[in-house]
Amino acid sequence: MKMRSAILILTLALAGCGIGRVGAPPSVFDLGLDSKPVPALPAREPVALTFQAVPVLSDTRMIWRVGDSAAPKAYATFRWASSPAELVRQRITDRLSRQGPVLTDRVNLQTPQLQVSLTQFEQVYAEDGQSSQGQVLLQAVLVSGRTVVGQTRIATQAPAPTQDAAGGVAALRQASDDAADQLAQWLAVALKSSAAKPGG
């Protein structure tokens, strides 16, 4: 009973309930400037990036949930400046571009294609509401010619400094940067492995 009460209180607080009041325009956030250093990796050839996301991440709602609940919720008075799909795609492009060109289309079949899917981008609260973390989940496939040469699943999380929307933004910024950096490191190894194969 105490656990259910705590979750109910958390839900009402995070939802920004404003019964009987005219709501102010929602506060808008993005991931901020990309100023964090990237891993030291060798320069690489151009890659073509394709990016997709699950439908819930294709609008500007800020998603949160409690524990492993199957019922995601959205903040009522906070929004992303662009959809999480677009924010993460741009972040990955920015950070991968430090090692080499990132193209939107393949120049030819010899251009490696990196296919990325975003399946999670949300703030997850502990059941007692005392802590939360930003969680990001990516799946990536590297295609060379018409052959899949590698695939990976990247799951990152970062603690939120405050238990509110602003804390979630900070945590998701860190988790997104970490995911992009892990993707860059995996890509460097996958491209090297592909080039070393006969005919690569």
From TrEMBL:
Q: Which domain of life is it from?
A: Bacteria
Q: Which residues form the ABC-type transport auxiliary lipoprotein component domain?
A: 55-184
User: One matching Pfam family, short form?
Assistant: ABC_trans_aux
Which Gene3D superfamilies does the protein's record reference?
ABC-type transport auxiliary lipoprotein component (3.40.50.10610)
Write the protein's name.
ABC-type transport auxiliary lipoprotein component domain-containing protein
Q: Name the species this protein comes from.
A: Achromobacter pestifer
Where is the organism placed in the taxonomic lineage, from the top? Bacteria, Pseudomonadati, Pseudomonadota, Betaproteobacteria, Burkholderiales
